[in-house]
Automatic annotation (TrEMBL):
Pfam families: SIS (PF01380). Residues 138-274 form the SIS domain. This is MurR/RpiR family transcriptional regulator. It comes from the Bacteria.
């Protein structure tokens, strides 16, 4: 695909972002200044995806406080949260080659440095912005559910498996569902005492939406981990944890999600330490009984 085709494709991608922005509910009729800030985002969503509040304000001809008020009028806490949503939706319109072109120009000396810089930025943002109460809510939901179904595909299937692994060792066994048939079968007998955890980033899979719809139809709570607060699947969620997923190339970043999963897993252990310590001890005995570890196996030379 040549550059001209990619640029044309970028122009076509503006319409879905604009449609989403215009459809966002507002608390009241926007002022002329807030409307100007909104128009600045609509005219150039790519710019808005990466600009500071000050730069967007300058582009719109308003002050920084107006940009904050504009974000809050749409239900976001401020510009960083609104911008995360804009960027996720903008990048979600791009295919893999387009996404690679988006990150082609970088001040980092190597792709590795660009990747590390991106991760550091994401983790800094998460440390400031993630609601700790939501982390606790997710852990409590996992701990109290009878069945725990994690719906995750692609590279995020690996993140789903890590959550299942950690939660299982802590005493809360989970099922990981990666394909449509497995999802369909697993949802056949879920109840309001179970829990469905979809993980979906960048481009939304229809199977994840279908799982959330079926869960809600059956009264099963849906605890969503995603990079967009406003989306067809977010509308179905009981609770949402929003995590950045933009990588430094066409690969989405899973590090922020893994950090979140480790935090949820640690919170799980804190809910019922006696239960988790017993489960961890049992898992350790199983590892030793099965001879999984070299240092605990007969092959390890004794002194």
């Amino acid at each position: 695909m040549d550059s001209a085709t990619l640029i044309a494709s970028h122009d076509r991608g503006k319409a879905p972002v604009e449609d989403w922005l215009r459809a966002l509910p507002q608390d009241n009729t926007p002022s002329r200044a807030i409307h100007a800030a909104l128009q600045a985002v609509i005219v150039d969503p790519k710019f808005a995806s990466y600009a500071s509040a000050g730069k967007l304000a300058a582009r719109a001809g308003v002050n920084v406080a107006t940009v904050t008020r504009a974000a809050q009028s749409f239900g976001f806490s401020g510009w960083p949260e609104w911008q995360q949503e804009i960027r996720a939706r903008y990048l979600g319109q791009l295919n893999a080659p387009e996404l690679a072109l988006e990150h082609e120009i970088s001040v980092a000396p190597t792709p590795f440095d660009a990747t590390i810089n991106k991760h550091l930025g994401h983790l800094t943002s998460m440390r400031r912005g993630v609601d700790r109460r939501l982390i606790s809510d997710f852990a409590k939901a996992i701990a109290t559910a009878q069945r725990r179904l994690i719906v995750a595909s692609g590279s995020y299937g690996a993140a789903g498996k890590i959550l299942a692994h950690h939660a299982g060792i802590a005493g809360y066994r989970c099922e990981v569902l990666e394909d449509s048939i497995a999802i369909t079968h697993a949802l056949a007998d879920i109840t309001d005492k179970d829990l469905v955890i979809p993980m979906t980033f960048w481009r939304l899979f229809n199977s994840s939406i279908a799982a959330a719809k079926e869960a809600r139809r059956r009264g099963t709570p849906v605890y969503l981990i995603t990079d967009q607060m406003v989306s067809p699947i977010a509308e179905l969620a009981t609770k949402i944890l929003v995590v950045p997923s933009e990588g430094a190339s066409f690969f989405p970043s899973i590090l922020p999600t893994l950090s979140l999963i480790e935090g949820i897993s640690a919170e799980l252990v804190r809910i019922d330490p006696a239960h988790s310590n017993k489960a961890i001890a049992q898992a350790e005995r199983q590892w030793q009984d099965f001879g999984l570890l070299f240092f605990n196996s007969p092959n390890f030379p004794s002194a």
